[in-house]
Amino acid sequence: MLVELTINPLGRGTHLSKDLSEVLKIVDASGLPYCLTPFGTCIEGDWDQVMELVKQCHTLAKSFSHHVMTSIQIEDEDRAVNKLEENVAVVERLAGHRLSRLPHKVVEAEAFHRPAQSE
After folding, report:
1. Rounded Cα gap, residues 54 and 41, in angstroms
2. Residue 11 domain-assigned (yes or no)
3. Burial annotation 26-62 (CB, 10 A radius, 16+ → b, else e)
4. Are 67 and 10 in contact (CB under 8 A)?
5. What domain range is 44 assigned to?
6. For residue 76, what are the CA distances in angstroms to 1, 4, 49, 80?
7. How many independent structural domains does the chain possess?
8. Residue 57's pLDDT is what?
9. What pLDDT shows up at residue 33?
């Protein structure tokens, strides 16, 4: 099962990176395959694993804000595996080339240790 999870803690201003980085720590620690996107996070696993993780993420976001909007989209296909990569790979094969215009840069470790700029 593939789930796209979007969490918006309302009333926290327009810069939510700090709050969402805390939520992503839960996703990362889950051990489930995931992919962070600019608008949400795609997570792959079985129903119980993913729904428990969604609940944990929503609960943490509620600790930051009294009003949280959590949205999920679910793709549930029998016997499907590796949907995080396969969904994109199929479209790229049909297009005949990679479909990303973003340069692939290696983020230096020191970037993770810099103090956050105030937003």
Report:
1. 11
2. yes
3. ebeebebebeeeeebbbbbbeeeebeebbeebbebbe
4. yes
5. 2-113
6. 5, 12, 13, 8
7. 1
8. 97
9. 97
Give domain status of residue 118, yes or no.
Answer: no
Task: Give pLDDT tens digits for 6-49.
Answer: 999 998 777 788 999 999 999 999 999 999 998 999 999 999 99
CATH number (domain holding residue 61): 3.30.70.930
Interval 73-107: pLDDT, tens: 999 999 998 999 999 999 999 999 988 877 766 55
Query: What does the alpha-carbon distance between residue 73 and residue 113 come to, in Å, rounded to a whole number?
Result: 33
Structure-token pair, residue 65: 């804000």
Residue 65 falls inside a structural domain: yes
Beta bridge partners of 56: none
How does residue 119 score in pLDDT terms, banded at 50, 70 and 90? very low
pLDDT at 111 over 60: no
Whether 119 is covered by a domain: the verdict is no
Pick the closest to residue 76 from 51, 94, 55 (CA basis): 51
CA 69, CA 60: separation in Å to the nearest integer? 12
